[in-house]
C-alpha cells in the first residue's frame, strides 16, 4: 500500500514538473524578441580516439580543450569526455598521474578536477554515435548522455589518427565522414541541437566534414585532403610529442579570452598561419532556404564555441564555403569552393577534383558579391 502511494505521489510530482517546464518554455517563446536566438544551453563532446603511449599528444589535445571549455563556462555536467587511453598511468610516464601539453610542463591537464565519461575500451565508434544520437540503453547513467535539445549549441571536438574520410578509434576500427554526417542529421531530425561547432585535429581533417548536409553546422579542421596534421613540440623528459600544432594554437588563442570576450571568429581565423599550422580550412553548412548561414566569421568566438547564434543572410542553397588558411598571408582570407559547390557555381568546371582548385577560386572571386562582406 505504501509503495502504491509513493508511486502515485512520484507520478504526480513528475507531471507537475513537466507542466511547469513546458509553461516556462512557452513563456520565453512568447516573450522572445523577433529574430532572437533559440539558444539556451551549451554542451561539449570531446573525443581522443587514439591509444598507446606514442599518441600522448592526442590525449593532451582533448584534455586541453576540456580545460578550456570548462574555464569558459561549460560545466562538467554538460561535457562528455572520451579518452581512449590513460597516458597518465602509463609505466613510461615519468610524471605519474599527470598530463602536460607543453615542454616546460607548466600546467597539469589531468590534475584533480577531471571527469572522464568514457575511458579506454569504452571509447568506440558505436558509443560515440550513440552519444550524439541519444540512442542509449536505459541502463546508461545521465552523466554519460548528451542531454541536448533544440535550444542547445553543441561543440564537438575530435583528435586522433585519420585519413581521407576516416578517423581511427583505438587503432582497431574507423569512423567515416558519412557516419558523422548521418549522426548530425539524426540530431537535426530529433531536435538535439540548435547549432553545432565541429572541430577536428587529424591528418586530412577537411575530409571528415566533406559529407555534412545538415543545417547550422560550423566546421574547422587542421588539414586539407592529402595533407598531414603535425605535432607541435616534444618534451625530452616525457620522450614524445606533447600536443599537436593546430590544437596548440587554438588553445593559445583561447587563453587570451574570457566569458565576456567580444573577439570574433574572424579574429580566430586570422591567426591561422601556414608556418605553424601548414593548412587550415573552415566550412559553413546549410541545406534549406529558411536555414541559411551567414557572416559566421563576424560572430564572437565565445558565441560560436559556447553560446552564440549563426545569423542568417542571403546565401544560395547548397553553398559550401572554404576559408583557406594556407594562402591567408598572401591574399587575406582566400576564398575557394569545394567540388559540390563547384558544380553549382561554375558549370564550366564540372570535373574539378581538388578540394581547393585555383581555377575555381578565380571563378568564385569573380562572383564575390555573393559573399558576406567580411569574407570578400
Structure overview:
This protein is an alpha/beta fold and 376 residues long. The chain contains eleven helices and 14 strands. The chain has a nine-stranded mixed sheet, sandwiched between helices. The chain has a three-stranded antiparallel sheet with strand order 5-6-7. Strands 10-11 form a two-stranded antiparallel sheet. Residues 1-18 form the signal peptide.
Counting copies of identical and different chains, the oligomeric state is single chain
Spatial sequence of strands, sheet with the most strands: 3-2-1-4-8-9-12-13-14
Number of strands: 14
The parts where pLDDT drops under 50 for at least 5 residues are 286-298, 307-376
CATH architecture: 3-Layer(aba) Sandwich
Query: What is the CATH topology assignment?
Result: Rossmann fold
Q: What general form does the structure show?
A: globular
Question: Distance between termini?
Answer: 72 Å
What descriptors fit this protein?
376 residues, alpha/beta, Rossmann fold, 3-stranded antiparallel β-sheet, 30% helix, globular, Peptidase_C13, GPI-anchor transamidase activity, GPI_transamidase, signal, GPI-anchor transamidase
Record the SSE blueprint.
Elements: H1 2-31, E1 41-48, H2 56-71, E2 79-83, E3 118-119, H3 125-133, E4 152-159, E5 162-163, E6 166-169, E7 173-176, H4 177-189, E8 195-201, E9 217-221, E10 231-234, E11 241-244, H5 245-254, H6 265-270, H7 274-277, E12 281-285, H8 301-307, E13 321-324, H9 328-331, E14 334-337, H10 339-345, H11 358-365
Parallel strand pairs: 1-2, 1-4, 2-3, 4-8, 8-9
Antiparallel strand pairs: 5-6, 6-7, 9-12, 10-11, 12-13, 13-14
Amino acid at each position: 500500500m505504501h509503495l502504491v502511494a509513493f508511486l502515485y505521489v512520484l507520478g504526480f510530482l513528475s507531471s507537475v514538473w513537466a507542466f511547469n517546464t513546458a509553461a516556462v518554455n512557452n513563456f520565453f517563446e512568447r516573450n522572445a524578441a523577433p529574430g532572437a536566438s533559440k539558444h539556451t544551453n551549451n554542451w561539449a563532446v570531446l573525443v581522443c580516439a587514439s591509444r598507446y603511449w606514442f599518441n600522448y599528444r592526442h590525449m593532451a589535445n582533448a584534455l586541453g580543450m576540456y580545460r578550456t571549455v570548462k574555464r569558459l563556462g561549460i560545466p562538467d555536467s554538460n561535457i562528455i569526455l572520451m579518452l581512449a587511453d590513460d597516458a597518465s598511468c602509463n609505466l613510461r610516464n615519468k610524471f605519474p598521474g599527470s598530463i602536460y601539453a607543453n615542454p616546460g610542463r607548466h600546467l597539469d591537464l589531468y590534475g584533480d578536477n577531471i571527469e572522464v565519461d568514457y575511458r579506454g575500451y569504452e571509447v568506440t565508434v558505436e558509443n560515440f554515435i550513440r552519444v550524439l544520437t541519444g540512442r542509449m540503453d536505459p541502463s546508461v547513467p545521465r552523466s554519460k548522455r548528451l542531454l541536448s535539445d533544440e535550444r542547445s549549441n553543441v561543440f564537438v571536438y575530435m583528435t586522433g589518427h585519420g585519413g581521407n574520410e576516416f578517423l581511427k578509434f583505438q587503432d582497431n576500427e574507423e569512423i567515416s565522414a558519412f557516419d558523422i554526417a548521418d549522426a548530425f542529421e539524426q540530431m537535426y531530425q530529433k531536435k538535439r541541437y540548435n547549432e553545432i561547432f565541429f572541430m577536428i585535429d587529424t591528418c586530412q581533417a577537411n575530409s571528415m566534414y566533406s559529407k555534412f548536409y545538415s543545417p547550422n553546422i560550423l566546421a574547422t579542421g587542421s588539414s586539407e585532403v592529402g595533407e598531414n596534421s603535425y605535432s607541435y613540440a616534444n618534451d625530452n623528459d616525457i620522450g614524445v610529442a606533447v600536443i599537436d600544432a593546430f590544437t596548440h594554437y587554438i588553445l593559445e588563442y583561447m587563453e587570451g579570452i574570457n566569458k565576456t570576450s567580444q573577439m570574433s571568429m574572424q579574429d580566430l581565423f586570422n591567426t591561422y598561419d601556414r608556418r605553424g599550422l601548414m593548412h587550415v580550412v573552415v566550412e559553413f553548412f546549410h541545406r534549406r532556404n529558411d536555414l541559411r548561414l551567414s557572416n559566421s566569421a563576424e560572430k564572437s568566438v565565445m558565441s560560436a564555441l559556447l553560446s552564440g547564434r549563426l545569423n542568417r543572410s542571403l546565401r544560395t542553397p547548397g553553398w559550401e564555403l572554404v576559408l583557406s588558411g594556407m594562402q591567408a598571408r598572401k591574399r587575406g582570407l582566400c576564398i575557394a569552393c569545394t567540388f559540390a559547390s563547384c558544380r553549382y557555381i561554375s558549370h564550366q568546371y564540372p570535373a574539378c577534383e581538388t578540394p581547393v582548385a585555383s581555377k575555381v577560386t578565380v571563378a568564385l572571386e569573380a562572383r564575390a558579391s555573393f559573399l558576406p562582406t567580411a569574407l570578400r
